[in-house]
Specification:
This protein has 9 helices and no strands. By secondary structure, the chain is mainly α. The chain has 2 domains: 98 residues, Rna Polymerase Sigma Factor, Chain: A (Orthogonal Bundle); 86 residues, Arc Repressor Mutant, subunit A. Helix 2 packs across helix 4 and helix 8 packs across helix 9.
Length: 198
């Protein structure tokens, strides 16, 4: 995965570079919202690996996933002032941007997706269960846990989250009742969470 190519002008050093390594999340986000590119660089370092993992799982093409990753972080830079911690966690916000951008890319290739159903928060809870802000999230580890689930759960998670199908569309595609899809969705996410946090 290539390093992020910064397309903006000269970096604005509000503090020495080493300052941002130990900066707490709230302070780092605040600096990002002020347009501090050093803070942005640190955000990229912390979250690019896990964000790429989600994008690649949806796109399933390394080159395209890398392109989408660049677009996602440009959006993070542009949209940072609009982030509101009262409406959700920062990582949830990033993954929403990444997931939407990935599905938009798939849609551009005539992939149908009218509604996104499985909440990103479920996966954020799982991803963050064994990590903290000072460590990059192990997205590859998440794939390992998903692969360990029963085939029915793997297929359901693939359709609802990574392919962006609605529960109704998943019901029709897999030829199972809608109520069954909803129940299995909850059960599978609970199993995935239990595997990660045990």
């Amino acid at each position: 995965m290539p390093l992020f190519i910064f397309l903006h002008g000269s970096l604005s050093y509000f503090y020495p570079a080493s300052h941002y390594i130990f900066m707490q999340q709230d302070a780092l986000i605040l600096e990002l919202q002020k347009g501090n590119e050093r803070a942005f660089e640190r955000i990229y370092h912390l979250y690019s690996e896990s964000t790429y993992g989600i994008i690649f799982t949806i796109i399933r093409d390394e080159k395209v996933a890398e392109e989408v990753l660049q677009d996602v972080f440009l959006k993070i830079w542009d949209k940072a002032p609009s982030y509101n911690s009262d409406k959700g966690r920062f990582f949830t916000w990033i993954l929403n941007i990444a997931r939407n951008a990935s599905i938009d890319k798939i849609r551009s290739k005539d992939f149908k997706n009218d509604q996104q159903n499985l909440k990103t928060d479920n996966f954020v809870d799982i991803l963050e269960a064994k990590t903290n802000f000072s460590e990059a999230v192990d997205s590859i580890g998440l794939k390992k846990y998903i692969d360990a689930l029963k085939p029915v759960c793997k297929k359901l998670i693939d359709y609802l989250f990574f392919k962006g199908y609605t529960q109704k569309e998943t019901s029709e595609e897999l030829d199972i009742p809608l109520g069954t899809v909803k129940t299995r969705n909850r059960v599978c996410i609970d199993k995935l969470r239990a595997m990660v946090i045990k």
